[in-house]
Design goal:
CATH topology of the largest domain: D-Maltodextrin-Binding Protein, domain 2
Strand order of the largest sheet: 2-1-3-13-6
CATH superfamily of the largest domain: Periplasmic binding protein-like II
Largest sheet: 5 strands, mixed
CATH class of the largest domain: Alpha Beta
Bound molecules: beta-D-glucopyranose
Distance between the termini: 83 Å
Number of helices: 19
Shape: globular
Radius of gyration: 23 Å
Number of strands: 15
CATH architecture of the largest domain: 3-Layer(aba) Sandwich
Strand content: 5-15%
Length: 418
């Protein structure tokens, strides 16, 4: 029997009704984040798809701006007006600060059932828990002490991987002399601070980094080592192009991808941009640790913080938490994002050479006690201190302060927020 027009119309109406009914049943979860660059958005797409499978719709609240400064401003405004998002991407001490206000959800039951305690490194749990309660779900671990390079340019100029400050400067000079941009950089405070993180680690080593940027020890801040750090920042400033001011990090990456610039010093989210542009590590681009920091990992971990909600929203939150902690998700996400999984039990099989190195470095640094929180990305000190560092580092990088003035301002700033 051939379907009549009436039957076809009935079927179409039924199908549309089913579709509406399904959508109406789906819970919508509002998530605030700053993953707006190509690689970031592609990685986030994996989480959105997974949630859809669990009957949850994702309501996107993207706030552009690397490092999350702008996102945190929007978050404060939302909470002040009594309208917090259900989940928020957050870093380090920001999580601790929000937990102290008592507005975050308790995830302990899900964490216990899924044994999160056993698979998340202690250095990260320190920011996922408050008073013994899990209040955040770690999505990934990034690290900032990386250099990214255009392989064709390195080959053309016969530049081998620099392993010391001296070699790095020689390589930068070679590129500059060839008429190309040596260092792709975006002049935004969080990017200047990301560069500073690596220079502190190279110049002073892990103990000095801890004393100066985590313990905020005034002797370390007022030391010859710190003076050398600031002087080295000025040396690097000499290899940046004239248009660097205000440039977004992913636009700096695009300069390296296109071969206009040779190097970028930045966290491994940069790899997400190379990958989404179809580039291959070892062939089109090189990744290596910032010279002299090979044995340390300056980390930041993206976590999803859940605000306290009730009813079906709470259920959806827990589903989101479970989806994030799923080992297969952790692998698929980080393969694209450029990070490494926050869980220690995820195999490295699907990762490229940079990702495999990142995972091995993380495990080694964790065991050796050299897995250290990044100041620039909120894992060394609370936001008030971080912002004070940002101001001084940027003013110095832009020539508004000399090294002596920068040290003085740093001491004053730390004193005033202590
Ligand atoms: C975040 C990364 C992000 C980067 C640039 C960092 O603070 O941890 O996930 O890709 O900022 O937006």
């Amino acid at each position: 029997m051939r379907p009549t027009i009436l039957m076809r119309t009935c079927l179409a109406v039924l199908f549309a009704w089913c579709l509406i009914a399904t959508r109406a049943g789906a819970v919508e979860v509002e998530v605030l984040h700053w993953w707006t660059a190509g690689g970031e958005a592609a990685a986030l797409g994996i989480l959105k798809d997974r949630l859809k499978e669990s009957g949850i719709d994702w309501k996107d609240v993207p706030v552009a701006g690397g490092g999350g400064t702008q996102a945190m401003t929007v978050l404060r405004a939302r909470v002040t007006s009594g309208n917090p998002p259900v989940a928020v991407q957050m870093l380090g001490f920001d999580i601790v600060d929000w937990a102290e206000l008592g507005v975050l959800a308790d995830l302990n039951e899900t964490a216990a059932a899924e044994h999160w305690d056993r698979v998340i490194p202690a250095a990260i749990q320190r920011f996922s828990k408050a008073d013994g309660r899990w209040i955040a779900v770690p999505v990934d671990v990034h690290s900032v002490n990386w250099v990214w390079a255009n392989q064709a340019l390195l080959d053309e100029l016969k530049i081998a991987q620099p392993r010391t400050w001296k070699d790095f400067i020689a390589a930068l000079k070679k590129v500059k002399d060839s008429g190309r941009i040596a260092l792709a950089h975006g002049g935004q405070p969080w990017q200047d601070a990301t560069l500073f993180d690596s220079v502190v680690m190279l110049t002073g080593g892990p103990d000095f980094y801890r004393q100066a940027l985590i313990d905020l020890d005034s002797e370390a801040l007022d030391s010859d080592t710190m003076r050398e750090v600031f002087d080295r920042m000025l040396v690097l400033r000499g290899f940046v192009d004239d248009n660097f001011s205000g440039r977004d990090w992913n636009l700096a990456t695009a300069m390296v991808i296109r071969g206009e610039a040779a190097f970028q010093v930045m966290g491994d989210w940069v790899k997400g941009e190379f990958i989404t542009a179809g580039k291959v590590p070892g062939k089109d681009f090189a990744c290596f640790r910032f010279p002299g920091t090979e044995n340390t990992v300056l980390f930041n971990s993206d976590q999803f913080v859940m605000f306290r909600v009730g009813g079906e929203m709470r259920e959806a939150q827990l589903k989101l938490a479970t989806a994030i902690m799923n080992p297969k998700f952790q692998s698929a996400f980080s393969v694209i994002k450029g990070s490494v999984p926050a869980r220690t039990d995820v195999p490295d099989a699907d990762f490229d050479a940079c990702g495999k190195q990142g995972m091995a470095d993380l495990a080694r640094a964790d065991a050796a006690g050299t897995l250290i929180g990044s100041m620039a990305h909120g894992h060394a000190a609370p936001a008030a201190v971080k912002n004070a560092f940002y101001d001084v580092i940027t003013a110095h990088f832009n020539g508004e302060l000399d090294t002596e003035e920068a040290i003085e301002e740093l001491l004053d700033a730390v004193e005033s927020v202590r």
